[in-house]
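Re: beginner question about structure tokens

> Can someone show what the tokenized structure looks like for a real chain? I only ever see the sequence side.

Sure, here's an example I had lying around. Input first:
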Amino acid sequence: MSEIRDKYQEPLEGDPSAFSEKVELKKEDFSKKPSLPDESVSKEQEVLELEKKLAEKKMELNKEVVSKKNEESEPEKETTPRPNIPPGKVQQRVKQLKDTSKENQVKALCDLAFQKGLDFAVETAKNLDNAYVLDEFHDTLVDELREKLIQKGELKKL
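And the corresponding structure tokens:
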């Protein structure tokens, strides 16, 4: 019975059915570079030159775009100056409110907004370092302010 051999399987050493010839590769075989025909070398040079020109064009376009952006940049928007709020007074209020409950903090902040101004109340709320209180203050303030504007007739009730 003859053994069927897989043509893609490499022969094992000591196998009698292994190929008798061994191919030895030398280092010299790998050091040789294949030579390109003259025509392909010139096309390769053309491609390199075209890539270089393309890169130069891109650089020029980028410079133009940057210069146009600088010319067309909008002037800085003027913001209304915020009143100077003394940090000492804000910190004093923060110390007073820290020990109270969250609901009382929100009520106190709303009262501050109507008594000492919105900026002072917002700065105090921010310095409490409590996102929940700041959010509740905002929601409550919007609701209260809306009601007061409706009462004054400056806003129509929907």
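Each token stands for a local structural state, so reading them left to right follows the chain. The two ends are 100 Å apart (CA to CA).
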